[in-house]
Specification:
By secondary structure, the chain is α+β, with helices and mostly antiparallel strands. The chain is built from seven helices and twelve strands. 30% of the residues lie in helices and 17% in strands. The longest helix has 39 residues.
């Protein structure tokens, strides 16, 4: 596996998600499912347990069929009332993606425009990407007999054609601002400086080395379910050396398992031979019948 090298993102696109504007209508979820042809599965029976995977509401969760969701949060107001906030969730498309650096099969790849694409035909299903992602984004198709990984691709084909991801133009309240990443970041800072309602934190500006989807909010991000223990340094900067050796360790481990298999097989055969010899000797002793 070649050493991970960050890609030049000079021309990368980005998205600003302004949570103050979101009304939780779910239009982005519908557009995502229609464009990517993923199913609506609210409840289903799996091999192990019943699992709910709603795409909207208080229990909304990313799943193999949910590449984007809108989660509702009930928050207390200082006056004793209740405030609702809605959070659109999808892959944040890290500037230095851990899923890319951890995938020795190169099933995850990042384009110069920013989106992290997935190539299922070369995926080996090792799920290192799931372990590596600091935001727990990639999902495994547990109920598929030929399972793959799934996640938002930022509608990379649309971006290559100069269009915004499918979820953005359908939003009735302009929650998302799409453009060149540098312009998106400038817009986020402009809004924070011009409106005292906003928390002075752009989520994604520094988390995990920076993400191309960034968020602003008038409520603390920890109250909205965002992961706050994400390191500022990119994940590949920690793990690239180790992941470079992953295929080697994989081959070594496969060799170890093969040796153990033949050792146990030989040991079992020897034991069976001993038992058979003892049985034969017992049958041959006179007077024992």
């Amino acid at each position: 596996m070649a050493k991970y090298t960050p890609i030049d993102l000079t021309n990368a696109k980005g998205v600003l998600v302004d949570l103050v504007k979101c009304i939780g209508c779910g239009s982005c979820v519908v557009a995502c499912k229609m464009y990517n042809r993923t199913e609506w599965v609210e409840e289903r029976q799996t091999l192990f347990h019943d699992r709910r995977a709603p795409a909207t509401g208080e229990d909304a969760m990313l799943a193999d069929e949910n590449w984007t969701v809108v989660r509702k949060h009930r928050l207390p107001n200082p006056d004793g009332g209740e405030a609702w906030r809605f959070v659109k969730l999808q892959c944040l498309h890290c500037k230095e993606p851990a899923c890319v650096s951890s995938c020795f099969a190169t099933a995850f790849r990042q384009t110069e425009l920013g989106p992290v694409e997935y190539y299922p035909h070369i995926c080996v299903g090792c799920r290192y990407c799931m372990l590596a992602c600091p935001f727990s984004i990639p999902k495994f198709e547990w109920d598929n007999p030929l399972p793959m990984l799934t996640k938002c691709s930022m509608c990379d084909d649309r971006i290559r054609n100069g269009d915004a991801p499918a979820c953005i133009p359908v939003c009735p309240t302009d929650v998302m601002f799409f453009g060149r990443y540098d312009d998106v970041l400038k817009e986020a800072k402009r809004r924070l400086a011009g409106d005292p309602r906003y928390v002075q934190h752009i989520y994604g500006e520094h988390e995990a080395g920076g993400t191309l989807w960034i968020y602003i909010s008038d409520k603390p991000f920890e109250d909205l379910g965002f992961k706050m223990n994400v390191p500022k340094r990119s994940i590949p900067s920690y793990t690239s050396g180790f992941m470079q050796a992953t295929p080697i360790f994989g081959l070594i481990w496969a060799g170890v398992l093969t040796c153990l298999y033949f050792f146990m097989k030989r040991r079992t055969a020897k034991k069976e031979k001993e038992v058979k010899s003892e049985a034969t000797a017992t049958e041959s002793v006179p007077g024992e019948h």
